[in-house]
Amino acid sequence: MDVEERSPGSGTDVLIRKVDSHVATLRAGLHGPDLELAERLAGCLRELVVSTAQASAADRARVRVAVHYFVLRRESRGQLLSVRSLAAAQRLVNKAARQLGRPDLMVETRAG
């Protein structure tokens, strides 16, 4: 039986493209502190994706879950992304960063 080897970059590239595409979409609808938070979450996710490319399957799965949670469209009455769902994504991304030993990547909410 043939075993197909995946290059570590293939999954990494897909996840980063998902994050980048979602942030590009958010730029059209979010402004100010909400857009800044989304940009910082995206930066954290990109770094987690890259830093776990050679990590265990469990660690890569944590990052994949955080990316998918961030990029899911949560529409509410015509809004692309509610502040509430952005805060939920922030909690999940921060939890993943903490679990992966990367508290330096945690995204704090900045006072306006």
SSE order, as H and E? Answer: HHHH
Helix content: 55-70%
Terminus-to-terminus distance: 58 Å
Number of strands: 0
Task: Describe the fold and architecture.
Helix 1 packs antiparallel against helix 2 and helix 3 runs antiparallel to helix 4. By secondary structure, this protein is mainly α. The chain contains four helices and no strands. It has one domain (8-101). The termini are far apart. It has helices spanning 8-29, 32-51, 57-71, 83-99. The longest helix is centred in the first third of the chain and has 22 residues, at 8-29.
Helices and strands, with pairings:
Elements: H1 8-29, H2 32-51, H3 57-71, H4 83-99
Sum this structure up briefly:
The protein is built from four helices and no strands. The chain is an all-alpha fold and 112 residues long.
Features of the shown structure:
112 residues; 4 helices
